[in-house]
Predict the structure.
Amino acid sequence: MVSSVEGKIIFRAERFVIVESGGIGYRIFTTSDAIHTLAKNQKIIKFWTHLYLREDTVELYGFLEYSELEFFEILIQISGIGPKSALGVLAVAPLDTLKKAISSGETSYLTKVSGIGRKIAEKIILELKDKMGKIGSAEEGIFLREEGDVLKALRSLGYSLEEAREALKKLPSEIEGAEKRVKEALKILGQLSS
């Protein structure tokens, strides 16, 4: 089993990278967020990996953080969720935000993923809610809805999902309210592009 791959990225595509390690090139499927992060980084990189084997498929999925790999492996154990859908879920929001959304029953994050409708989103929440712990509160539910609104607003202004998520990660937590968060995110995006 291939548990991790460390090496130099020799090729990037939209859904995967090729990492050369020991003279072998490994095609590793990963999130668009990871590919965007790696575009800035030309150093040796380490992926935590999951080897996905089926009769007609052998694929390697990689994650920059071990916690993302663990979450991915939990997701693909759910009936109806394959590795591509699980990657899509991880690409929607930062892992902590996803965990809070699941624990508070917020399906809107999951239904943004292609192939995941309301019923499958509810199934994911039902199966994972206990595993995510009791971290969801009413206040966190409001925060998650606001964050979703901020993402929507930034996307409607022409920013990519990756850019919007990057700005959200850099927002100070003390800024409350969707409108204020959008204004602050726009300032951050302005600084990133200059």
Observations:
- The longest helix spans residues 138-156.
